[in-house]
## 1
Amino acid sequence: EAGVAQSPRYKIIEKRQSVAFWCNPISGHATLYWYQQILGQGPKLLIQFQNNGVVDDSQLPKDRFSAERLKGVDSTLKIQPAKLEDSAVYLCASSPHLYEQYFGPGTRLTVT
Amino acid sequence: GEDVEQSLFLSVREGDSSVINCTYTDSSSTYLYWYKQEPGAGLQLLTYIFSNMDMKQDQRLTVLLNKKDKHLSLRIADTQTGDSAIYFCAASNQAGTALIFGKGTTLSVSS
């Protein structure tokens, strides 16, 4: 079974630029999550989708971050404009049910 | 909200047992998890335990849960150099959906 796919794996941008990350979850997984992992910390939930509907986006900085999951499969996370403090690894996870989440390799974002 | 705390570092010799400890604050957390993260990689689900269980064993891994003290531990028997990684404890949030992670424990195994 193929795992969660993410691209790109690495991205370097300047502050105030925009960037987008893509995630393809495990086939059949209805729930998709985006987490932000700052260096030296555990992942923090940004947004959770159930099929193509948003379940929880309470910790998503909506003034600059947006996410969508069209057709309930792939998802994109966008940052516009980026700030220095957005430098982190962005992890996508998917789940077939409530108690198992499978993570992708992440996208490492560096904002200069 | 939920808060998860872990010690930051653990150093053991190859062949010894490793015990990584974690505390959490929300007694309503339904599931508790251990994830492993190797350098440059995503998180690998090692094991999880339902809150009505005290112990779960899976090959070299033993999870102990003390619900009264809100304490979770992961024991790795016969620790190998390949076990060197960061181990994250996580608890389900109040809705039982997303995970709240600790800051991770870096396990260093010397030969």
Note: The first strand of chain B starts at residue 4 and ends at 6.
## 2
Amino acid sequence: GQQLNQSPQSMFIQEGEDVSMNCTSSSIFNTWLWYKQDPGEGPVLLIALYKAGELTSNGRLTAQFGITRKDSFLNISASIPSDVGIYFCAGRVGSARQLTFGSGTQLTVLP
Amino acid sequence: ETGVTQSPTHLIKTRGQQVTLRCSSQSGHNTVSWYQQALGQGPQFIFQYYREEENGRGNFPPRFSGLQFPNYSSELNVNALELDDSALYLCASTPGVGDTEAFFGQGTRLTVV
């Protein structure tokens, strides 16, 4: 089945710094989604991308759908303590029913 | 909040037992999917329900089964529990079967001992 390679696996940054994480796949995805998951909670949708090359922002978050349709990145600017959590990329291939998730990026923001 | 609610929040079962997890989808959403999330991993698709029928299935054995009711709520049943079934089980709803943006509940943490 499809696999998403998400990197980095973890990040430790200072408050106020910018963050970048990405996902790559050997398969072409029609949709890319970025989720954030806090401990003991379900994933919360941050950004959805539907077209190759699309660049979408949600506050301090910006994500792009790669032009090859095999990758996506998420940037967080001016990080704050509440950005701490696990960020997942997810994608949908063709008419597949399911979302395929990456393995997550654990973000820690140091004061 | 996403409007997707799951119960119970935590559950401990013994190997070999059966378990039923429940999910109420967001108002107006007719499609429900279930995911299993092992510790330290991303969610893995179990199956999807639309109009009370299974509408796609991931790589999970038949002892994982489900139901969807006329009000679009759903159940996940797991028979003959194994230790490896210990995980966070997530329910996600979408407005329609062709929609992409899935909204997740808070999950049920299942521990099999």
Note: Chain A touches chain B at residues 1, 4, 6, 31, 33, 35, 40-45, 48, 50, 88, 90, 92, 96-104 (CB under 8 Å).
